[in-house]
Amino acid sequence: MSQDSNGVAGHRAAGRGRRRKPATRRRGLVIAAWSAAGVVLLGGAGLGWFYFKLNGNLKTVDIDQALGTDRPQNIDNGSMDILVLGSDSRGGANSEYGQDDGGSARSDTAMIVHLYEGHKKASVVSIPRDTMVARPSCVTPKGKTIAASQRTQFNEVYTLGGAACVVKTVETMSGIRMDHYIEVDFTGFKNIIDNLGGVEITTNKPIKDHGSHLDLPAGPNKLNGEQALGLVRTRKTVGDGSDLGRIQLQQAFMKALIKQVKGIGLFDNPKRLMDLADTATKALTTDKSLGDVKSLMGFAQSLQGIDARDLQMITLPVTADSRDPDRVAPLTKESKMLWDALRAEQPIPAEATANSMGDKGTAGGIVQQSP
């Protein structure tokens, strides 16, 4: 992977150039997926008769069959690694966010969630969509083999090879086997937020972004699904306007969402719980091992002890790509520190992000959790 010796040079430009117009409306879908997986079935056995309906809602991808044995070792130490992806297909109900380009989709937002042993804390690593990565050879969902490439934009991997190819690329980058895969789309994101009754945030400045059609005053705001989607797609009017700043905004919103989920008393409102479970299972695509109510219930229960304060959230250590200043490339040394720490069940060291273009700026501080 290429690395630019100029460190943070080109920060404002990186990740922003030469994008097709529809791409300005494609970000942030994954914010719901991490929380949705934990709220889908919080009612446990109380779902009862709803079991078969929810099973029918779920869509799955058989990652294990697609990748076979060509994967990192599966280490059973109590930890868990989940690739959470936001897809941007323009088909069906998502067409209002841009023109369908023939049914293809990109993974414009991606997070690797590492649950430490005991599942009481987690590290979350966001991968910028414009990161130039080495992609291994993959077999597409239609059975076509695509040759490996030493230089592919990360969010194009999904378009080229589907979910299994994204998992294989992430595993090649990190040397860490992904235990699970979760994907969510535009419409699913909005519906989850609306079923939660909205998300309360506080902004320390007004946000008015024409690209995402968002207009929020400074102070407390209760966002519905459409507004929440607008917030996590906002870029040009927050921080320095880069996509790396938008990731900070998404991470801040994610923490507010988790706080909201843990504080709304789902157990006290069975109808609300059923509606949310129905909506979330329709919104998610998971790996096959999570693709039934019983398995998803167990996974959700394993997340209940994690609060927003238990999350360490960073962006993959990157710098301006040496061949294209509008793209970014992983910092080799710092990325190794990151992956080594997760494999060793250690917090991500500050040294891993000190020279990175990610996690800089002020965008993340614009959104705060409401009291």
Explained architecture:
Helices cover 32% and strands 20% of the residues. A hairpin with a 5-residue loop joins strand 6 (138-139) and strand 7. The protein has a seven-stranded mixed beta sheet, with helices on both faces. Helix 1 (30-39) packs parallel to helix 7 (243-263). With 371 residues, the protein is of the alpha+beta class. The protein has helices spanning 30-39, 51-57, 63-67, 154-174, 186-195, 225-233, 243-263, 270-283, 293-303, 332-343; strands at residues 59-61, 80-86, 109-115, 122-127, 132-135, 138-139, 145-146, 149-153, 180-184, 199-203, 207-209, 214-216, 219-223, 284-287, 311-315, 318-320, 328-330, 367-369. The protein contains ten helices and 18 strands. The N and C termini lie far apart (43 Å). It is globular. The protein has one domain (21-357): Aminopeptidase.
